Amino acid sequence: MGLNVGGLLSTVTGLVGGILGGSAPAGLSISDVNTLMTNGVTAATNLDKAVTTDASTLAANMTNDITTAAQGTLSMAVNGAAALSKSFLSDSAKTITSLNTAVGGTLAGAYTADVAGPLAAGVGGGISGMLSGVGTGVGNAMANMATSIPAATASIVGSLGASTLTATGLSAVLGSATVVGSSAAPTGLLSGLL
This protein's superkingdom (predicted)? Predict the structure, then answer.
């Protein structure tokens, strides 16, 4: 008398029927489960491709935007520093020329040593500090981007994955399946995994 495989696979009284919460009117057929699983795998595969493409595009766009902004910021900082330096040197040169003409070389020399020199050092230090601050800020922005893009992508993938399970009906099937012989209300054979 051989093994009755049909009894095991019966969607009403068999092992598979019991696992899926099957009863005469409400049980799922093997074909139904196969269709749901196939559709779920197909949807998940398509979603994975779409998310991977979209995540790559998002990362590229963010990288380009931040890089463009950083280049603009650095360019403005360097141009501003150059303009500030040029303005200061021009003003100093005019002041020295006017002192030379008006009072003589002694005052001009004193001004250069006591005023223009320290001022130039201060301006140079200020420009250096400004450029250093801009460089540090840009570096931090790039480092944060390198960390935040993968984290955002993982979050998007996780969220869309859960949505796919729900949209394909797999979440409902797996969530309502019960263990064979359980008299409790359906808690879901795999509900702990979802």
Answer: Bacteria
* Residue 9 contacts residue 16 (beta carbons within 8 Å): yes
* Mean pLDDT computed over 111-121: 67
Question: Could you write out the DSSP letters of every residue in 42-63?
Answer: HHHHHHHHHHHHHHHHHHHHHH
The Cα–Cα gap between 186 and 121 comes to: 79
Q: What is the pLDDT of residue 7?
A: 45
Question: CA–CA separation, 139 vs 146, rounded Å?
Answer: 11
Which residue bears the tokens 């893009």? 149
Taking residues 60-82, what's their average pLDDT?
Answer: 75
The 10s digit of each residue's pLDDT in 134-168 is 667 767 766 766 666 666 666 655 666 566 556 55
CA terminus-to-terminus distance, the chain: 41
23-36: burial string, b at 16+ Cβ within 10 Å, e else: eeeebbbeeebeeb
What Å distances lie between residue 9 and 4, 13, 34, 101, 181, CA to CA? 9, 8, 13, 110, 16
Phi, psi (degrees; rounded to nearest 5) at 61: -65, -45
Q: Report how far apart, in Å, the C-alpha atoms of 115 and of each of 82, 98, 109, 121 are.
A: 21, 15, 10, 10
E runs forming strands in the chain: none
Q: What is the pLDDT of residues 16-65, one digit of tens each?
A: 555 555 444 455 567 777 777 777 777 777 776 777 777 777 777 777 77
